[in-house]
Amino acid sequence: MQVAVCEEQIGWRNVTRLLVFSTDAGFHFAGDGKLGGIVLPNDGKCHLENNMYTMSHYYDYPSIAHLVQKLSDHNIQTIFAVTEEFQPVYKELKNLIPKSAVGTLSSNSSNVIKLIIDAYNSLSSEVILENGRLPEGVSISYKSVCKNGVVGTGENGRKCSNISIGDEVSFQISIESTSCPANNKPEVITIKPLGFNEEVEVVLNFICDCECAANGEPNSEECDEGNGTFECGACKCNDGRIGRTCECSKDEVRTEDLDANCRKDNGTDICSNNGDCVCGTCECKKRENPAEIYSGKYCECDNFNCDRSNNQLCGGHGRCECRKCVCDANYTGSACDCSLENSTCLAKNGQICNGRGTCECGICKCTNLKFQGPTCEICPTCPGVCTEHKDCVQCRAFNAGEKKDTCEEDCNYFQLIKVNDRDKLPQPTDQSFPLTHCKERDANDCWFYYTYAIRNETKEVYVVEILECPAGPDIIPIVVGVVAGIVLIGLALLLIWKLLMIIHDRREFAKFEKEKMNAKWDTVSPASQSLYC
Hints:
The protein is elongated. The protein folds into 6 domains: 2-124, 3-Layer(aba) Sandwich (Rossmann fold); 129-204, Immunoglobulin-like (Sandwich), CATH 2.60.40; 209-252, Laminin; 308-339, Laminin; 341-381, Laminin (Ribbon); 385-464. The strands form 13 sheets. It has a 4-stranded antiparallel beta sheet, with no helix packed on it. Strands 29-32-31-30 form a 4-stranded mixed beta sheet, with helices on one face. It has a 3-stranded parallel beta sheet with strand order 1-4-5, sandwiched between helices. Helices cover 23% and strands 26% of the residues. It is α+β, with helices and mostly antiparallel strands. Keywords: Calcium, Cell adhesion, Cell membrane, Disulfide bond, EGF-like domain, Glycoprotein, Integrin, Magnesium, Membrane, Metal-binding, Repeat, Signal, Transmembrane, Transmembrane helix. Belongs to the integrin beta chain family. Residues 498-530 form the Integrin beta subunit cytoplasmic domain. Residues 1-210 form the Integrin beta subunit VWA domain.
């Protein structure tokens, strides 16, 4: 408090004023001084001598509201540098003191400079407007247009956040008076941004009487036999008279009777709480938006409380009458969000939802759960058109297949047309409807060809009546081939055996020749034999 109010002693200049409050404990406020016998409330004045507060024994602590007022009057922004233990306490205090910030102080206060810088950046990025005392009967409202076009109303209309240097914000301020001051003198309202010295003074000049009131006609016939003054196009009733044209007397009609005429039944509010009961008749309230109107004998109707779709009243396809939507042509539903057009449900074959569902509000609802997609054209679990109709086509066209015994019961859902050649099957380029060509094989490995199509809701199947079966084997070439193969294999075996014999004989002959040569060297005469003895 002393730092705020002692401007000369502290040395405040006409600049941005920051007050750093550093502590590792809580704080005292008004009422704590009573424990020491101090009961006088703080006077909010400067009592410094030699930079010391001299009235601590005389005045109690200031209240938070008193302190907020003084800080605001002197454009001081507060930074609470407190230890982590007391963070919750001072964060709550921050919510009560505009243009204040809270930072966590380390145990040795080494981060105090960084804390002040961060807190200053936070404070300087926010603009908050406040106004001085308002005269009786005068109200003020704010609307802010902040950065990136963000609009704030109510309490948020007083401030803009996340502002950088060079950013521009604007505020629209509306002042309304519901009554005239007693002295009918001009009043002054001050408006300023917190933390700044600049302020705007708004001078209010009250116009309490309309110029047309001076030309009013007393006891006018317009006001039920002269029971009021007709001025500015309406009746100003004499004392004791009420009603739009002063037609009722307060003495003749009881308030209970008037209220009963303004209730729809005993369990409802007077004029459905949307109007005032004047002389037994409901006068509905006016809304800020002229397009929004209460109506009805008991003000029970309005044109703005109907169901919405896509954030539009009655989906943008109707009008709201007595809280119910009256839809335009081709729309229905409580919010007129259901289109009666079925063009979005038409499939390529011209059918609604491919004949597998119904069109509701322009969207296909597939009755067969196997199908899905915008027009029920997708069937993830279906085997395919050709496989699906294979057995029925086979049994009806060729009297064969798995459904041969139940063909008449299960396979009468399409019209069968036989052709004698594949070239006579319908071609996709000749048709204006989807056509599927199919090629399937039966149990005898014979191929049969057909087409499946839906034309004008009639299912048509064109089938080639001649099966394509594989030709039987030619016996003679097979026999000749087998015999020739056996003969060739026999000849090959003989040649191999003959070749092996030739090789074996040659090896034996060579061995014989070698042994014969050795025998010649061993044959000598007896005389020679004696020489070696």
